[in-house]
Amino acid sequence: MIYKIIIVNYHGYSDTLECLESLLKSTQQNFQLFIVDNSLEDVDFEMFIKWSHNIPLNINTKFPELVFPTTDKSINDILFIKEEEIDHLKLIKQKIIFIRAKENKGFSAANNIALKYLKEQDTFDYIWLLNNDTVVPIDFLQNISDKLNKSSENIGIIGNSLRYYNYPEKLQCVANKYSNWLAHTFPLYECMNYSDIPKKELYNLIPIGASMFIKKECFKEIGLLEEDYFLYFEEWDYTCRAKKKSWKSIIFTDIYIYHKHGTTIDKGNNEGKSKTLFSDYYLLINKIVFAKKNLKFYHLPTVYLSFAPIIINRIRRRQWDRVIMIFKIIFGLKFDLK
Q1: Are 216 and 186 in contact (CB under 8 A)?
Q2: Could you give the domains of the chain?
Q3: pLDDT single digits (tens) 23-43
Q4: I need a surface site. Which of 31, 44, 264, 336 has the fewest CB within 10 A?
Q5: What start-end ranges are recorded for coiled-coil regions in this protein (predicted)?
Q6: CA angle, corner 123, sides to 122 and 127, nearest 5?
């Protein structure tokens, strides 16, 4: 199995380097890494350059056995380019490619910078969209390769369990169930002890966006991520689009990575605004965007009604700015997060 791994960085170089070091320790090295830097300033990209030159950097980790000792990098295996340059490259041979995005247009748009290049390539089996705030066990890729070799041809979307980085015995969850009537997902096995969940294969659920594999043939048919979502709903939208083309999803609950959960969002938290406001806005506005794009017209009334308990909850908390925001979202009015 050959993998193309895409990681988006936004002012989180330390997390990204921790993730990269864990991947470079993997027993399965048949992959190429694309790191898209969405940061507003040059600091992160400069740190990646230092890392590529083996300059010692402070990487804090709770999993030293998966990260240290740091890998000795060869500058010939690493490429640094700008977003506008990748369109002119026919075949990139380096193992690690750092891409400086022109601007931060969201998670989907950042992934699409690398995906547009991969759409013209054929030398891989799977694309792996991976959050930068993750740590990957040494045998993860080998284990998932063994399972994918046995999976049916119409499996196009693949997910795995996510364990909390700070509480590794606990699960973030393994996948999401969803309701078309509410345009809402329900995490499966959320916060349960990993040792207590059934280790099996689950079908036709939504993988967690922090770790989602896409089969090459599925990607070639479905295409890029939808950029209407600045944040959230990308994996739900892609899984839904794939399902309409008869592709199925599978979740391997007995294979896991560690996820810090929320670190990426916190880093991109719009110049100090609370995470709740930032998260609320994109969760709620994208709920409507998704429903209008992917659901039937008769689902929309209940989707809008599902905002009622959210409004009541915000009133109960006296979060008046959130209440105003929700009404503006419902009526299609602009709400300024700044």
Answers
A1: no
A2: 3-267 (3.90.550.60), 275-330 (no CATH)
A3: 999 999 999 999 999 999 999
A4: 336
A5: none
A6: 85
